[in-house]
Specification:
Layout lengths: L4 H5 L20 H9 L5 E3 L4 H7 L12 E4 L3 H14 L3 E4 L15 E4 L6 E4 L4 E4 L5 H8 L4 E2 L10 H7 L6 H4 L6 E7 L5 E4 L5 H7 L8 E8 L1 E2 L3 E9 L3 H14 L5 E10 L2 E10 L10 H4 L5 E7 L1 H5 L11 E9 L4 H18 L4 E8 L25 E9 L5 H21 L22 H4 L3 H11 L14
Parallel strand pairs: 2-4, 3-4
Antiparallel strand pairs: 1-2, 5-6, 6-10, 7-11, 8-9, 8-10, 12-14, 12-15, 13-14, 13-17, 16-18, 17-18
Length: about 500
Amino acid sequence: MRQTTWAIAFASYPLVAFGLSTLEKRTLDPVCVQIAGAISSASDVYYAGHPLYAKGVSHWASSSSQVSNCVVEPGTAADVSVILGILGSTQTPFAVKGGGHASNPGFSSTTGVHISMYRFSDVIYDAPSQTVQIGPGLIWDDVYAALEPHNVNVVGGRVTGVGVAGFILGGGYSWKTNQYGLTIDTVTAFELVKPSGSIVTVTQASDPNLFFGLKGGFNNFGIVTKFTLKTFPQTQVWGGLITITAPHIDDVSAATAAFSANVQDPKAGIITTYNFLLGSPGISQLLFYDGPTPPLGIFDDFLAIPYLTKDISTRSFVSLVQSSPANATSGQRGVFNAVSVLDFSPTILDAVLNETIFWGTQLSLKTGGFISYDVEPFLPSIYSHNLAPTAFPPVRSLGLLPLNIYYAWTSSLFDADFHDAARQSAAQLYNAALADGQSSLVGSPIYPNYAIFDTPLTNMYGSNLPTLQALKATVDPSNVMSLAGGFKF
């Protein structure tokens, strides 16, 4: 039995609610107290006013944080089982947070019991099997740094600060996706606490249906406490960030369209981000080559463009990932949305620039500090690295390219305006792609990790949805996981 010393000492005292402008008196939630009394010494429960409570509920996007009754930090899968059992039996709303990079409100936050997976932070490399076990409380920066001494790496996030758990369970586009597929294509096992409380290791051999569902199906089937991923050799890499001002955007668009159409080297990658900030459009250009020196010609067009800042070098993989400006808007409100395209043609890139300027101008009047569109070219063969079916993508015959819309702002008064703008802009770009001749996009799936919170499930999972719903009903007949946020089958 476990009740934290802190909880006992302050059980009868008024508490300060995290994130509120005034003090709020509240008594300890009985479910939180029940959990504190049931878990082992490997785990803890924190209440408002404790610094680890604030850490537990916080997110990269402040709009994704809520004031919960308590924060639970489990330290073992057995304790996760105990916690899930109590939450299910009491029908208590809860959340499960990994790295905290969710942009959709309520997806990894709650006013009920907030489970933070920070203590699941092991990185255990096994050289004979060429695999690594990683915990869901990590961010990718931690994983890359731990693997660097072994000269191996995994297929993971491309920019700094992104959490492991949601990224994997939603699919996972990586700098290494051209070579090895999505991150889910490289997962060999999940340690899962099912809604029933049983702790299982899910593999293709042990449970192919559940293995299929976990690869893109988020938290519908329980709480993952460990991922096992394939590893791959890793040398130093080349690349980094270039920022470019408005007069040279057309040159960037031309270089991006040419790269997308012509570069076939699977080790080469870019993210061209059209930004609007401080009243003007601009470009954040990430370049990547999976080797110390890129072949001549691949990035010449980009390197010839006059720049504002330039941080390009041969470096470690984690150094390259941390060269991205992804944390510049940390703490602001935020929303993602997504469009899938087949080709980043000059016409599509013109449409992206138009959307950047239009919405940047409009939303700057509503505390919008950063309006951006991430253009992410990949080879059309990216889905061919795995022949086994996965929840996402439902169709592997099309090499879909994700286009990420991201808006950051400061005032909650304008939340609905930014959400509506993200929807309208995605629709505008989708229609632009159809008008550009990309008719095969009709009915094609949207990348779940970029999709806005009210995206219909069919728009992400297509023909897989009935199978996933049936699997969810089998694995979770009492619908325990519906008490947590996220896309629900």
